[in-house]
TrEMBL record:
Residues annotated as domain AttH: 100-222
Name of the protein in its database record: AttH domain-containing protein
Keyword Signal attached: yes
Annotated signal sequence range: 1-27
Pfam families registered for this protein in UniProt: CrtC, Lipocalin_9
InterPro entries: AttH-like_dom_sf, AttH_dom, Fungal_Dehydratase/Hydratase, TAT_signal
Record keywords: Signal
PANTHER family listed in its UniProt record: ATTH DOMAIN-CONTAINING PROTEIN-RELATED (PTHR40617:SF1), TERPENE CYCLASE ASQC (PTHR40617)
Keyword presence, Signal: yes
Amino acid sequence: MIKRRTVITGAAAAAVAAAATPSAARAATPSATSYGGSATLPAGKGIPAVVDPAVDLGSQTPGPEITWSDSIYFTSMVKAGRQEFGVLAHALAAPNAQGLAGIYALSVTDKTNGWYKSHSTTLTAEQFHWSRGKLDITLPELTWTGDNTRMTVKATAPWGSLDAQFEVTGPVMNYAGTGLFKLVDVQNYEFAFPAMRTSGTLVIEGRKHAITGTAWLDRQWGPLPQAFQRWTWMNLDLPGGDKVAIWDAVGTGTENAWATVLHPDGSYDLAAVEPLANHAAEPWTSPTTGAKYPTRWRITIPSLHARLDVKVTGTPEQELVLVAGSRLEATAAFTGTYNGRNVRGENYVEMIGAWQG
């Protein structure tokens, strides 16, 4: 297997430094390479992975922090005839929080007709069941089962339901190359299945849609930053097969904007990204919460010769309101240049915190 050099610049270097700290690594590290298998390629210079998708789809042992959380989340771009939808489902355990044990959310964006529906609930410890060591989640409105090759999600909301199957079709992405990085002032674990074939049935207001498409699954756990102000996360699926995950996390007096780039052969590039707020535009103000979010960005990654314009699609009104706060979880599209070539594609944008446009 070809191993590319790893481009580590600026904020990306900080992420890698945190991931490479021996005391931060978990017990055993994988040694084999697999598409959705039990291990992943190391990042450049032999840095080992500290996550194992074969077991880490199961729930994690909580840390002591009140803000510690355990999250599994997918975004999917699917079609049903001439209609195009964005679908998102999220299960989050918050075992140390006061008054709740977890959160469930489901949202759908009709990109063709320009409407958005969302649903979220808070859950008690008796309602939130997530097995240790395997993907087996049972909530009142959600079941999520399977493994690191295939999985099934069945989710319901007052306005409809989702019954979808997912098949992993490419290598796993370990954020920062190892699966461990610094989120403002704390360490988080995160990996993704950025290439998943998706099929199933989506029901909206009694109308059934047979859907097919692709999905990106993210698995993350750890505490929220103490000095947190806001963050933006984006996932980019490039035409040549590269998968790009962007984090721009802003704390008190700090900002880390960086990208993990997974190539089709399983190797990585890590690179600094220009702060997204520098070229954020076209703000939308939520009539529900009063929060303001940009809906357009210019993404610049100098070392990868990338310059991409990203814009929310469907409707700007894609705010997901949770008990822990509101956020933008929006379908988007991008155009521009990457490695000197013209590219275009679809993605999701997540924005949390004090954004002012």
